């Protein structure tokens, strides 16, 4: 996919608003017209992991949650500490856009496409799916729930993707401006 930028505006309704773009943005900025609140979010899936096993997870690996059965393709591994050989690797899995099926919990994961043709065993431990969202007012703090921007994946009958502006950000009567960015994937 080529990089893309989409800007626009919607009127706040005090309810969550789905912005359909046809793609899920990597990064979104939302600003209310009164200038009191600006919220930013990185929406790409970055899944933290610890306890990396001796089978090395690399870009191109397919991982599956041992409990949740969620699956995803790993685009890149950002190793923060430890080594795979020692079973102490820790860092972040960057997932390929559109490959996540289900929701990872705090659980062990296994590599399902090992070169040997077998499925791995406890290849790492992940925590819940992570997106980073930040609300900037007088001071900055993490934004969660209705005060955040989240991914919009569409529904079975409607496949348009984009992002959702939480109901707290969607103040009635406010003009809500947004800029959404997609990186090369």
Structure description:
This protein is an all-beta fold. It folds into 2 domains: 4-43 and 132-182, Immunoglobulin-like, CATH 2.60.40; 46-126. The chain is built from no helices and 15 strands. Strands 1-15-3-4-11-12 form a 6-stranded antiparallel sheet, with no helix packed on it. Strands 5-8-7-6-9-10 form a 6-stranded antiparallel beta barrel. A hairpin with a 5-residue loop joins strand 6 and strand 7. The protein is elongated and about 55 Å long. The mean pLDDT is 82.
Radius of gyration: 18 Å
Query: Roughly what fraction of the amino acids lie in strands?
Result: over 45%
CATH topology of the largest domain: Immunoglobulin-like
Largest sheet: 6 strands, antiparallel
């Amino acid at each position: 996919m080529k990089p893309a930028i989409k800007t626009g505006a919607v009127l706040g309704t005090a309810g969550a608003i789905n912005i359909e773009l046809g793609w899920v943005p990597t990064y979104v900025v939302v600003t209310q017209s009164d200038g009191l609140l600006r919220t930013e979010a990185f929406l790409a899936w970055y899944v933290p992991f610890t306890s990396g096993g001796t089978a090395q997870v690399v870009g191109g690996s397919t991982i599956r949650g041992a409990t949740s059965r969620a699956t995803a393709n790993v685009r890149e591994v950002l190793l923060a500490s430890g080594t795979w050989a020692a079973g102490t690797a820790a860092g972040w899995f960057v997932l390929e856009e559109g490959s996540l099926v289900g929701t990872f919990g705090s659980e062990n994961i296994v590599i399902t496409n090992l070169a040997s043709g077998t499925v791995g065993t406890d290849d790492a431990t992940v925590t819940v799916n992570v997106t980073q969202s930040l609300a900037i007012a007088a001071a900055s703090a993490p934004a969660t729930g209705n005060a955040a921007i989240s991914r919009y994946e569409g529904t079975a009958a409607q496949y348009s993707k984009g992002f959702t502006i939480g109901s707290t950000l969607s103040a009635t009567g406010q003009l809500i401006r947004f800029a959404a960015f997609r990186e090369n994937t």
